[in-house]
């Protein structure tokens, strides 16, 4: 039996290659939560009065995020929103019961909603209609932007002061490299925790507490804790090999050969951006004529309204749905 390098008492169950340590389940968990805690503290992601909404997809990262936040800030300051995308063959509705149970066991309320509720159609339908009109956006574009919008709406509706998303270290390293390769320094700054958007109080800031936790760590975490992870892979994934997908492959290979390289890269980036991000002037954003959400300067419609409009969804149903919910529905 190999003993844990941290406590020396329990059986080691994972080899953490970036630290060279073999850890037991308890110490592995404590190490992850510790890293999340230190990231939250370092960038002031969650203050004493904050109430945090988190997107609970049922994927491995979202489970680790919920567990960590409950441990760090307490279940009473956290609630979850789960969004059903509406993709046949990848039906999250069947997983909702497991997601609810997981959250309820930890004392966290889950609100379930769907893209259909906001866009007037599920994701597959939105995407199919866009294709018929000759549009070439990836399905993930509609999905990502809709989900982000829905989380923002619910945050306001339920008085959350932060929206936490489950992006892990691998995601963040990919984003950084993609921004770098595109020469997009604004994008680089905007994804950094130090960046302040300059938006007024009604726009809820987003935080990424897992930004220093490897993807393999969240995968091992849910496996070792036997959590009910959504098994089906989204059918839209890998449909068009994006720059990001190629960067992902390259970074995986690099990490494999040189364990810890992604973590070091992000630490270097943090140090380099620290000055830049705190000195950067906030972007002056406009407001979408249609839904009132923030837009890039000089744009009259936000990205989501524009995407939906060109796909033939003229009425922003999600906005009506939100407006009709002046008193929030009870959490389930
Ligand atoms: Zn241990
Ligand atoms: Zn809009």
3D structure, described in words:
The structure is a single chain. 47% of the residues lie in helices and 9% in strands. The strands form 3 sheets. A 5-stranded parallel sheet has the order 5-4-3-6-7, with helices on both faces. The chain is globular and about 65 Å long. Strand 3, helix 2 (60-73) and strand 4 (78-84) form a beta-alpha-beta unit. Residues 324-332 have low confidence and may be disordered. The chain has a single domain (49-281, 309-323), classed as Rossmann fold (3-Layer(aba) Sandwich), CATH 3.40.50.620. It has 332 residues and is an alpha/beta fold.
In short:
This protein is α/β, with parallel strands linked by helices. Helices cover about 45% and strands about 10% of the residues.
Labels describing this entry:
globular; 332 residues; single chain; five-stranded parallel sheet; 47% helix; alpha/beta; binds zinc ion
CATH superfamily: HUPs
- The name of the CATH architecture is 3-Layer(aba) Sandwich
Q: Helical amount among residues, as a percent range?
A: 40-55%
What coarse outline follows from CA principal-axis ratios?
A: globular
Q: Which hetero ligands occur in this complex?
A: zinc ion
Largest sheet entry: 5 strands, parallel
Low-confidence stretches: 324-332
CATH fold call: Rossmann fold
Compute the CA-based radius of gyration.
Answer: 20 Å
Count of helical segments?
Answer: 13
Q: Which structural category fits the helices and strands?
A: alpha/beta
CATH top level assignment = Alpha Beta
How do the SSEs run, as a string of H and E? EEHEHEHEHHHEHHEHHHEEHH
Count of separate structural domains: 1
